[in-house]
């Protein structure tokens, strides 16, 4: 596609339920990032995928969070047993390489845990 | 983890005013990016600076990278309501380059 696509755009879930957030990066981009953004705040790094290398999961806040990237393309961020503090906008970005090249962001998934 | 401190955190000004926002770190960055994020959207790249002392201009926006590559500033001349948004800096260096630390951002509101 022309840009990074994230789905769903909005998700409301009950506390304790699992959710899956999807990211379709720009075709051919080898690097993919997930960030979390609370209301009016900056971006909190969650996880980074680069090519076939092992992902950097150091930003995941707890073991309830996991992510995978299939075939070097689509990525799914899974949050198990959601808590109210998980409510935030989850942003995905991709870039043509690792390092400080331009990152292209999706519009994000706004997650609300009630 | 390298930290980027952005200031001010919030800025509300009238149309036509000038402003400067800052991005500072105690660490040296090999390069630094500025992004702008509008409500409901993802951040969009404005500029990348790579050389100490570098100045880049983008219409009414002027970006400067400090000589020591530890700080950067963004100056906006004659701000317009369309400049409203969250301005984020992002830096990287060395082995942790790929994490590309973001600052917390400056939320700018330009009132008509």
Question: Could you explain how this protein is built, in words?
Answer:
The complex is a heterodimer of chains A (114) and B (112). Chain A has 114 residues and is mainly β. Chain A has strands at residues 5-7, 10-13, 19-24, 31-37, 44-50, 65-69, 75-79, 88-95, 104-105, 109-113. In chain A, strands 2, 4, 5, 8, 9 and 10 form a six-stranded mixed sheet that branches. In chain A, strands 1-3-7-6 form a four-stranded antiparallel sheet, with no helix packed on it. In chain A, strand 8 (88-95) and strand 9 form a beta hairpin. Chain A is globular. The N and C termini of chain A lie far apart (33 Å). Chain B contains no helices and eleven strands. The model of chain B has no long low-confidence stretch (mean pLDDT 90). Chain A binds chain B through residues 4, 31, 33, 35, 40-43, 45, 48, 50, 56, 58-59, 91, 93, 98-100, 102-108, and chain B through 6, 30-33, 40-45, 48, 86, 88, 90-92, 97-105, 107.
Quick one: which chains have the greatest interface? A-B, 26 and 27 residues
- What structural category arises from helix and sheet content of chain B? mainly beta
Helix content of chain A: under 10%
Number of strands of chain B: 11
Write the H/E string of chain B, N to C.
EEEEEEEEEEE
- How helical, in percent, are the residues of chain B? under 10%
The N- to C-terminal Cα distance of chain B equals: 40 Å
Distance between the termini of chain A: 33 Å
How confident overall, as mean pLDDT of chain A?
93
Shape of chain B: globular
Protein topology:
The complex is a heterodimer of chains A (114) and B (112).
Chain A: E1 5-7, E2 10-13, E3 19-24, E4 31-37, E5 44-50, E6 65-69, E7 75-79, E8 88-95, E9 104-105, E10 109-113
Parallel strand pairs in A: 2-10
Antiparallel strand pairs in A: 1-3, 3-7, 4-5, 4-8, 6-7, 8-9, 8-10
Chain B: E1 5-7, E2 10-14, E3 19-24, E4 31-37, E5 44-49, E6 55-58, E7 61-65, E8 71-76, E9 85-92, E10 101-102, E11 106-111
Parallel strand pairs in B: 2-11
Antiparallel strand pairs in B: 1-3, 3-8, 4-5, 4-9, 6-7, 7-8, 9-10, 9-11
């Amino acid at each position: 596609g022309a840009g990074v696509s994230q789905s769903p755009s909005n998700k409301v879930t009950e506390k304790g339920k699992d959710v899956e957030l999807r990211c379709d990066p720009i075709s051919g981009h080898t690097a993919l990032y997930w960030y979390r953004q609370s209301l009016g705040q900056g971006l909190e790094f969650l996880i980074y995928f680069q090519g076939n290398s092992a992902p950097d999961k150091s930003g995941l806040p707890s073991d309830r969070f996991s992510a995978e990237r299939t075939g070097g393309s689509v990525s799914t961020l899974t949050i198990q047993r959601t808590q109210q503090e998980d409510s935030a906008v989850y942003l995905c970005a991709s870039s043509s390489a690792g390092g400080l090249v331009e990152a292209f962001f999706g519009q994000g998934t706004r997650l609300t845990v009630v | 983890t390298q930290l980027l401190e952005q200031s001010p955190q919030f800025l509300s000004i009238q149309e036509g005013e000038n402003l400067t926002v800052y991005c500072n770190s105690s660490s040296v960055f090999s390069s630094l990016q500025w992004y702008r994020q509008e409500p409901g959207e993802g951040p969009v790249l404005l500029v990348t600076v790579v050389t100490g002392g570098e100045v880049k201009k983008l219409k009414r926006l002027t970006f400067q990278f400090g000589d020591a590559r530890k700080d950067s500033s963004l100056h906006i001349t004659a701000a317009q309501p369309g400049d409203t948004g969250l301005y984020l800096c992002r830096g990287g260096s060395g082995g942790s380059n790929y994490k590309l630390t973001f600052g917390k951002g400056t939320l700018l509101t330009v009132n008509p």
